[in-house]
Design goal:
The chain has 589 residues and is of the alpha/beta class. It folds into 3 domains: 179 residues, Arc Repressor Mutant, subunit A, CATH 1.10.10.10; 160 residues, P-loop containing nucleotide triphosphate hydrolases (Rossmann fold); 179 residues, Serine Threonine Protein Phosphatase 5, Tetratricopeptide repeat (Alpha Horseshoe). It is built from 26 helices and 10 strands. Strands 5-6-7-4-8 form a 5-stranded parallel sheet, sandwiched between helices. Strand 1 and strand 2 form a beta hairpin. The termini are far apart.
Amino acid sequence: MTSETNPKDINLSGTAQDQSKLIQIAKIEAKNVIVSEELLNRLETPSLGIFKGGDARKRLVHWPGREEEITKIKQWFNNKNVAMIGIKGVGGIGKSTLASKIFEEKITLAPSLEDDEDLFPKRFWWEAGNPGGFSGLARQVLREFGYPVPEKETQLQEALIRQLQRHRHLIIIDNLESLLGEDGSWNNEFYQQFFTAWIEKGDTSKIIVTTREKPKTRGFNHWIELKGLKPPEGAQLLAESQITGDIENFSRRVDGHPLLLRLVADLLLAEFPQNPSLERLADLGLGNLSQLLSDPQVMGSHRQETVGIALVLDASFQRLSQRQQELFTKTSIYRREFDSPAAKAVMDNYPESALSEITADLRELQRRSLLEEKEENRQRIFSFQPLVWEYAQYKAGDQRELHQKAIAYYLSIAQPDSWEILNDVQPYLEIFYHRYQLTEYDNAFDILRAIDDFLTRRGYYQTLADYYLELVTVYQQQEEQTNWKYTASLTSLGNVYNSLGEYQKAIEFHQQSLAITREIGDRGGEGKSYNNLGNVYHSLGEYQKAIEFHQQSLAITREIGDRGGEGNSYNNLGAVYYSLGEYQKAIEF
């Protein structure tokens, strides 16, 4: 669909200034289109801000080729010493697509199998950034295949590994970079623990991960380093979209980058459906695209595909109507999938637009590969490819107002109570995210506190750990020792790690809370910290230390007249003596 304000007489040129600190490419009616260093850096940095739910394979369009990579992966399937396989590559190179091809293909090459027997009769696809963390993955795999699900979260890893060892599964974990730092260090210790254990104990089943960065995990040695499509394969992709012209040479010039080829194809199809020829790129300001991407002066220090994608996205964006442009940039405020009502909630400039019109515009964005779409429960669900999301975020600029609109939307759909599963409180976790992005950390704490009891009762300790850790990190950076929500977050983290059996970490966080309460003279908080430390040492079986901490807590609660705290101290002391077998003392307390 052609924009209402299409540019005319576009003359493409390319220059580089200041060692590529500012790249100017294309000239539209005497106005330079600038691809900035900031945008290029964003496109080249793995995103931690977006994740998708559900089965991503439903959104994938298969690209041709990859036979060598598929053959290599199948060889590893037959190697008992290979527990995990990694597919690494830059954004948009086709990691998820390759994993999807493997996932959907029947594997029968193992010599121990009958001719028609599938090597992996049980298969499961998981997005690394899905809510619930590793616990969510473990619970869903166990439920999916009818295995027992332990009540204690601390037993989930062992239960999952046991079933993966007993039966032949293929597990795909997509977009692992959402759990990693830029240097490959882990941001999620629970996944790290699972992968470390699986590499050591893995047998029978195989796990494939896709990622833009390799995790720092010892023993994870089997990797496919994914590059662009070969020229004939890239040409086939364009030909299947009815693109004409010197398609093989064009594919060679752009290094066969699949997302770039798809964006070019869909842009041409949208603008010139009767004649989607590569020659028409000149009419869109991209006539010299393949030549520019071979020019080191234009490229500077950036990857070829990064500059190419930025240029094609910019050309496609300019061809959108004003409403479509706003829809594209404003919906990037959502880190999760969204539907038409969610999109309309951030489109206040078009209150008269019917939901059907919003849906039609969203589908037009999907047709141009600016959005991805799937159908779920007879409802159209939209999401961003990570690289495209980064571009949309960049174009959106200041998003403070959009964060407020997203908060209002999630408040409108949030259930006040009667929660049963993690998904029931997901709107609150999204509100936490948007409050956090607005640097409203105390408000984010309040949201988390409102669902803390539910998450604790349901055993979602890893979810609580992830979110409280975000708060503790920022409170530490701001040195907010006098903010009670800081010490409360430390205390909550200590309690969560105690429930997870991570006793040393629990002690560390309770000790941090104790140090702060002493420093600021908060005797009540100090007493609670002693009590919590006593509980951890009780869990460790170090009963004498537990008694000492509970006695210290008891003394403080008596001193300040905290009758409730005094009662808790007595109860905890009684529990310790009961564990010691000193039942008379336990009764006395």
